[in-house]
């Protein structure tokens, strides 16, 4: 039965491929999404799979093939490491199941293009896990900019300063791929595409891990505005009005701001020293959009695979700018 034929009163059954840290946020999001229920999960290591299946109260599948083939699973979340996203996305799309794939969507532009081809052939959604832009305040900023209410856009700042211990950071690529991917799709969503970039990176607090823990970029947009990116796992910002995660857009006739620090719970987050409510909320909103709009109504994500391709091009341009110490045209 295809998702379009499914009983509209029955929640969409979701299966997780991968049950690491981010699956905890997605499981909570599904709990908060009336149109969805978590059917089950598969994880490469059985011990982790058993633990999470018990925590989430769902089934454990023996293989990813069994998960995508199961008739209770209407949609698949790909929550494994970057390098394996394409393989599992392909497996789910070939079973004609819509996919939400975590960011960075893939390791190269060609891999994202392949996902797009597979989704078109299957006739189902493949949505990038570009969670931040599902926050109401960023959607409002995007509308204000698009409608010209801020006048001529002058600058956009996307700042991220959240300390990550080395043992967590070394499960990920450096902050260019892991964090500047968020900055890239946020900037595109607010202000359009980038035409030029320069960037630098450093490794400041790891003892052994050699990837960068801080990176900054300066960008020029197609519309002439400039943007600044900072992504740091090296230190938290403890000063007043901290730049933990801040997105600021400044125009000649107005400005907007989004900040993680508007909602703080004094208890440790999964990888953070405290809980930033907006992190979970952005994933909850993203999951609701995927289920309600993309799966049930055949609608489109706020950030598409086409945007994921441009984001990947931008990440690769930032890597070239860093490696060659120059400004790179896109
Ligand atoms: N949207 C966000 O804000 C956000 C936050 C954290 C992580 N993520 C993304 O989510 C994904 C998972 O991150 P995480 O924090 O859960 O990491 P994690 O290390 O906690 O979990 C990753 C899981 O993937 C599995 N895995 C790794 N390589 C695999 C392979 N080749 N085949 C099958 N399974 C494999 C591991 O066994 C593990 O269970 C990554 O793509 C990451 O970038 C997104």
Task: Give a description of the structure.
This protein has helices at 21-31, 46-56, 64-69, 85-94, 109-122, 136-146, 166-169, 175-178, 180-191, 277-295, 305-324, and strands at residues 12-17, 36-42, 59-60, 75-78, 99-102, 126-129, 153-161, 194-202, 214-221, 226-232, 245-251, 254-259, 264-265, 275-276, 328-329. It is an alpha/beta fold and 330 residues long. The chain has two domains: 3-124, NAD(P)-binding Rossmann-like Domain (Rossmann fold, 3-Layer(aba) Sandwich); 133-283 and 312-329, 2-Layer Sandwich (Dihydrodipicolinate Reductase, domain 2), CATH 3.30.360.10. The strands form three sheets. It has a seven-stranded mixed sheet. A six-stranded parallel sheet has the order 3-2-1-4-5-6, with helices on both faces. Strands 13-14 form a two-stranded antiparallel sheet. The longest helix is centred in the last third of the chain and has 20 residues, at 305-324. The protein is globular and about 50 Å long. The mean pLDDT is 96. It binds nicotinamide-adenine-dinucleotide. Nicotinamide-adenine-dinucleotide binds at residues 18-22, 43-45, 48, 79-84, 102-103, 129, 131, 171, 178.
List the helices and strands and how they pair.
Elements lengths: L11 E6 L3 H11 L4 E7 L3 H11 L2 E2 L3 H6 L5 E4 L6 H10 L4 E4 L6 H14 L3 E4 L6 H11 L6 E9 L4 H4 L5 H4 L1 H12 L2 E9 L11 E8 L4 E7 L12 E7 L2 E6 L4 E2 L9 E2 H19 L9 H20 L3 E2 L1
Parallel strand pairs: 1-2, 1-4, 2-3, 4-5, 5-6, 7-10
Antiparallel strand pairs: 7-11, 8-9, 8-15, 9-10, 11-12, 13-14
Helix pairs in contact: 1-10, 4-5, 5-11, 6-9, 9-11
The structure holds nicotinamide-adenine-dinucleotide (NAD).
The site of nicotinamide-adenine-dinucleotide (NAD) has 21 residues, from α1.
């Amino acid at each position: 039965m295809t998702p379009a034929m499914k009983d509209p009163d029955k929640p969409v059954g979701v299966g997780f491929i991968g049950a690491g840290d981010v699956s905890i946020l997605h499981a909570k999001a599904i709990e908060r999404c009336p149109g969805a229920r978590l059917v089950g999960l598969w994880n490469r290591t059985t011990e982790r799979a058993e633990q999470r299946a018990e925590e989430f109260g769902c089934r454990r599948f023996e293989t990813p093939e069994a998960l995508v083939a199961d008739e209770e699973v209407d949609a698949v979340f790909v929550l494994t490491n970057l390098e394996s996203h394409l393989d599992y996305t392909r497996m789910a799309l070939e079973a004609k199941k819509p996919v939400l794939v975590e960011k960075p969507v893939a390791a190269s532009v060609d891999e994202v293009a392949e996902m797009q081809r597979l989704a078109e052939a299957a006739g189902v959604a493949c949505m990038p896990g570009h969670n931040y832009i599902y926050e109401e305040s960023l959607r409002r900023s995007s509308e204000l900019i698009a409608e010209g209410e801020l006048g001529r856009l002058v600058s956009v700042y996307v700042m991220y300063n959240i300390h990550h211990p080395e043992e967590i950071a070394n499960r990920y690529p450096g902050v260019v791929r892991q964090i500047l991917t968020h900055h890239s799709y946020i900037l595109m969503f607010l202000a359009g595409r980038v035409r030029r970039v320069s960037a630098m990176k450093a490794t400041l607090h790891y003892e052994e891990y050699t990837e960068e823990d801080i990176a900054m970029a300066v960008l020029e947009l197609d519309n002439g505005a400039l943007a600044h990116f900072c992504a740091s796992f090296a230190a938290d910002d403890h000063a007043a009005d901290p730049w933990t995660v801040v997105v600021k857009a400044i125009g000649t006739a107005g400005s907007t701001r989004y900040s993680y620090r508007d909602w703080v719970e004094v208890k440790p987050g999964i990888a953070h020293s405290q809980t930033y409510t907006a992190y979970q909320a952005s994933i909850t909103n993203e999951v609701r959009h995927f289920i309600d709009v993309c799966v049930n109504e055949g609608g489109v994500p706020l950030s598409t695979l086409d945007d994921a391709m441009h984001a990947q091009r931008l990440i690769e341009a930032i890597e070239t700018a860093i490696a060659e110490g120059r400004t790179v045209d896109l």
